[in-house]
Design a protein that fits this description.
The chain contains four helices and seven strands; from the N terminus they run E-H-H-E-E-E-H-E-H-E-E. By secondary structure, the protein is of the alpha/beta class. The chain has one domain.
Length: about 150
Amino acid sequence: MNLLPTYATNTQLGTPDYETYLRRFVETVHPAFISWDNYSLLEGEMNDRFYTNLELVRHQSLESKIPFWNIILANSHFNYMEPADSTFRLQVYSTLAYGGAVFSTSPTLLPRGIISVWPPSIILEIAPRLGTCCGASTSKFEPWRPR
């Protein structure tokens, strides 16, 4: 189950704040991990809400003794910018620095709906397979395309 990000409204969360939302989720669902999307590459920079979300989830993760996953922005859509190699790395390494166990890209943006998940133990050994939901390659997919 993938959670909402910190920029969801309290009405969307169904709680007075994000910390309560996380705590209730963990207490009710007893998940094996915490996972959420937070697309914060806007107007040429990383929005602080990305780090706020990492901090709050990290705190809940440590308190609950369960790992967390972060679904990062891999392709532009709506008003989100196309990640450059540097901003892609910024999202990945920030997640790892905050203690993220796994990060992924949205499965709707991957070839043929394949979910791409990268544990830190093999992050440097494998590469993202980024494309569209129909399998067409994008500029992010082509350098990593299986040969």
